[in-house]
């Protein structure tokens, strides 16, 4: 409320005379220094919290948390029994958004043709409509509400979003030229297109690439849709239903591709403390490189990284099984390794059941059916506080597998699970039936007292004739010579030494086979912060890794030292040894702001005892309102000159508007924000700004997670005022949420409003804009302090519950200065 309005309200308060807040307020107009005491409209102030009858567009808050996916129409009806009193109508359709317990919901009664809810049977539950802020506040005791925590809400308050279309993309391109004159160019494109209709999400994953080499003078091009599917959340079951081409995701059995229908519990629908963890990928890039993470040939993540260690942590929680990682170096070399996304021991809340089912037929990337009809199911049942029973089965005409296991909470000692799987397979052209067993042991523990954690440790042994469904399909239909897994053990752990400012991280995997050589991979990282000669927070990092893929080793050791220079600037040293190649470099990096950073480095390379060659490289990243772009370039003496480009982003379009935006999870959840037609409004720490139509999209929103989104008022333009700068959302997977900030843009001016007969509108009348926003309250002599006005705009003046007259602002609008505004009677 502006300054003049606050003064006016103070005058009103000083005039009050009442004995009880619930009684009507009587005004002593004799103390009011007004020209015409008969021309005063204070009816709306005669009762505390009085709201004139009518329909109001309001945001709905429960215990200071937004519960509606968009602003709602809230009626206020005149109370025929008490003068100057209105009754708030809480829409019956919104009752389920409150998340009431079944017992509390049964006590709600309805009135006004059952359009309005009455909560009088629930003591302590109150409603308050604040017209000035456009908000309906609901206060409810926790005893009437379902379980919730600061980051999670019950399913009754999840938002499926609005209908719309989306197109997400990741584009990577590079060119290089050797000192002998040979050159090459390559580009890759991947992403997801989709349509949202109600609670359904229709998606199509695509990928393509282009390669050209001057040596062969040939170009290779490929583009295809790798997967078509549809899915929706089933909140009552805490599960997701998927139709179409899918991947068999299982916590017990190996993954394979199929076409059919799947129904699976989604732990993201559970409170955060009951969820598992998302997989992450670590490695060391020798140069500026493109990292591609895929599963069974489908690209699920692609990005460009600078030279040195990299860590990818924003993979979708739904990803499970074996991931293939390809690191395309800028000098043309490649690294390939695999990551097994380990699962923590299978524990389930007591009395609840988690499950996954699927029915369909195996299919190829050419969208052809290739295999027999199969059905599968698995479950985990919380038998008691500390025990879980789990198991499952998958079966086809000539293949069956059955598994059973137990999970145990060991309290101080962590959590442990053990299971055994029996497979039976019959292959054409081979006598008899192949039968075999596979045994697995898994362990997880967080040692809080030692500030350390064994994220996952597992051991698995498979007999020679044990076959997974994927191995069976490869043997029968793929014609591939498969490796028979024998033994695998893996561990992922970290440890922090707080006093020493030291942290350790390690992961190790060993895989042996019945019919080929074993494979090992590991990574070890040690980081320490320290002070030296007056310099604070220097950091030293040592990383070592070995990856083995198809009997090829990739060993790397990386050492880095970073010296902060202040204001986001750092001076660094890095040394890397990889496959008989030693490189060292000095670097300078600068985090210019939240959306821009760059790094330049210069040093020397030693290639296996050959002559030392100098090198220089640079890497720049910009996160814009429309996309995220990175540029990189490198030069190696007597070697390769190269440059690369990467761009990630998306387009989201709905009936509410459309916007280009930076990347999030492909095809994933996003939030569309309206700034009421105002362009350039900064959101979330200036991470993104609204476009020329007043629309912005945040594409990094977590599904089923309560999220607050804010206008960055520190970066806001001077001529924009914020009435509601925070919105809340809890979106289902893949949803396009929609929220609207309450903003006002325009000039401020003192004005005198005059009626056609030379008089002024009543003292206390309200001036509102075409959107229904109150801009001022008229005081004595028609004086009003207007804010958020624009040239040529028409404003309405209201009193006695109706529009009394209308003013038109001049064009151009001459401010500062007083405006004389004629107010014409509305016919």
Automatic annotation (TrEMBL):
It holds the Pfam family PapC_C. It comes from the Bacteria. Coiled coil: none annotated. Keywords: Cell outer membrane, Membrane, Signal, Transmembrane, Transmembrane beta strand, Transport. It is found in: Cell outer membrane. This is Fimbria/pilus outer membrane usher protein. It is a multi-pass membrane protein. Its main location: membrane. InterPro entries: Fimb_usher (IPR000015), FimD_plug_dom (IPR042186), PapC-like_C (IPR025949), PapC-like_C_sf (IPR043142), PapC_N (IPR025885), PapC_N_sf (IPR037224). Belongs to the fimbrial export usher family. Residues 753-809 form the PapC-like C-terminal domain. Residues 26-173 form the PapC N-terminal domain. Gene3D superfamilies: 2.60.40.2070, 2.60.40.3110, 3.10.20.410, Outer membrane usher protein FimD, plug domain.
């Amino acid at each position: 409320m502006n300054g003049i309005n606050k003064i006016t309200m103070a005058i009103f308060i000083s005039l009050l005379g009442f004995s009880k807040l619930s009684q009507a307020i009587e005004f002593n107009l004799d103390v009011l220094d007004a020209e015409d005491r008969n021309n005063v409209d204070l009816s709306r102030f005669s009762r505390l919290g009085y709201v004139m009858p009518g329909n109001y567009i309001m945001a709905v808050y429960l215990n200071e948390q937004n519960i509606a996916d968009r602003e709602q129409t809230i009626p206020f009806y005149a109370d025929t029994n008490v003068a100057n009193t209105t009754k708030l109508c809480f829409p019956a359709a919104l009752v389920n958004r409150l998340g009431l317990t079944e017992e509390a919901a049964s006590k709600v009664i309805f009135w006004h043709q059952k359009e309005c809810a009455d909560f009088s049977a629930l003591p302590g539950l109150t409603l308050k409509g604040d017209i000035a802020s456009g908000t309906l506040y609901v206060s409810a005791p926790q005893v009437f509400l379902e379980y919730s925590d600061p980051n999670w809400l019950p399913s009754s308050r999840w938002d499926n979003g609005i209908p719309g279309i989306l197109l997400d993309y990741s584009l990577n391109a590079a060119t290089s030229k050797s000192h002998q004159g040979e050159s090459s160019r390559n580009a890759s494109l991947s992403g997801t297109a989709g349509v949202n209709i109600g609670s359904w999400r229709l998606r199509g994953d695509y990928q393509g690439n282009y390669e050209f080499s001057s040596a062969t003078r040939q170009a290779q091009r490929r583009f295809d849709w790798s997967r078509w599917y549809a899915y929706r959340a089933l909140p009552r079951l805490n599960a997701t239903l998927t139709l179409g081409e899918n991947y068999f995701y299982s916590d017990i059995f190996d993954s394979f591709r199929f076409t059919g229908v799947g129904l699976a519990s989604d732990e993201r629908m559970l409170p955060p403390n009951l969820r598992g963890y998302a997989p992450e990928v670590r490695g060391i890039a020798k140069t500026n490189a493109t990292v591609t993470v895929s599963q069974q040939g489908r690209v699920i993540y692609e990005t460009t990284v600078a030279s040195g260690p990299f860590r990818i942590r924003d993979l979708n929680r739904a990803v499970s099984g074996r991931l293939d990682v390809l690191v395309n170096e800028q000098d043309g070399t490649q690294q390939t390794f695999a990551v097994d996304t380990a699962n923590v021991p299978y524990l389930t809340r007591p009395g609840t059941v988690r499950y996954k089912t699927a029915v369909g037929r195996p299919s190829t990337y050419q969208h052809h059916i290739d295999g027999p009809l199969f059905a599968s199911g698995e479950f985990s049942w919380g038998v008691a506080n500390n025990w879980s029973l789990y198991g499952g089965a998958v079966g086809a005409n000539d293949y069956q597998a059955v598994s059973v296991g137990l999970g145990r909470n060991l309290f101080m000692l962590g959590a442990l699970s053990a299971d055994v799987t029996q497979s039976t397979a019959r292959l054409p052209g081979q006598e008899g039936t192949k039968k075999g067993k596979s045994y697995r042991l898994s362990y997880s523990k967080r040692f809080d007292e030692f500030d350390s954690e064994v994220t996952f440790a597992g051991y698995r042994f498979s007999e020679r004739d044990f076959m997974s469904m994927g191995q069976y399909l490869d043997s029968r239909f793929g014609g591939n010579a498969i490796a028979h897994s024998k033994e695998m053990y893996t561990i992922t752990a970290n440890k922090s030494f707080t006093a020493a400012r030291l942290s350790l991280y390690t992961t190790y995997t060993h895989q042996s086979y019945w019919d080929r050589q074993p494979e090992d991979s590991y990574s070890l990282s040690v980081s320490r912060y320290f002070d030296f000669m007056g310099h604070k927070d220097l950091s030293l990092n040592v990383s070592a890794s070995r990856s083995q893929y198809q009997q090829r080793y990739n060993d790397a050791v990386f050492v880095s030292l970073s010296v902060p220079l202040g204001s986001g600037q750092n001076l660094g040293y890095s040394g890397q040894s990889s496959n008989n190649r030693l490189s060292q470099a000095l670097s300078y990096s600068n985090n210019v702001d939240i959306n821009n950073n760059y790094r330049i480095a210069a040093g020397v390379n030693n290639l296996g005892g050959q002559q030392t060659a100098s090198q220089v490289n640079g890497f720049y990243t910009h996160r814009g309102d429309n996309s995220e772009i990175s540029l990189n370039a490198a030069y190696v003496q007597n070697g390769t000159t190269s440059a690369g480009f990467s761009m990630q982003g998306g387009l989201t379009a709905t009936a509410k508007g459309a916007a280009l935006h930076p990347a999030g999870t492909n095809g994933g959840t996003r939030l569309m924000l309206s700034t009421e037609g105002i362009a350039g409004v900064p959101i979330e720490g200036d991470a993104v700004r609204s476009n020329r139509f007043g629309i912005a999209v945040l594409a990094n929103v977590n599904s089923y997670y309560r999220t607050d989104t804010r206008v960055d008022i520190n970066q806001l333009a001077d001529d924009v005022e914020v009435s509601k700068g925070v919105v809340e959302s809890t979106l289902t997977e893949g949803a396009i949420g929609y929220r609207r900030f309450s903003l006002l843009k325009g000039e401020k001016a003192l004005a005198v409003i005059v009626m056609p007969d030379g008089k002024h509108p009543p003292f206390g009348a309200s001036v509102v804009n075409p959107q229904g926003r109150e801009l001022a309250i008229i005081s004595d002599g028609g004086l009003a302090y207007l804010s958020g006005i624009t040239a040529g705009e028409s404003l309405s003046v209201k009193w006695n519950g109706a529009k009394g007259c209308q003013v038109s602002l001049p064009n151009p609008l001459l401010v500062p200065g007083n405006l004389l505004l004629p107010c014409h009677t509305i016919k």
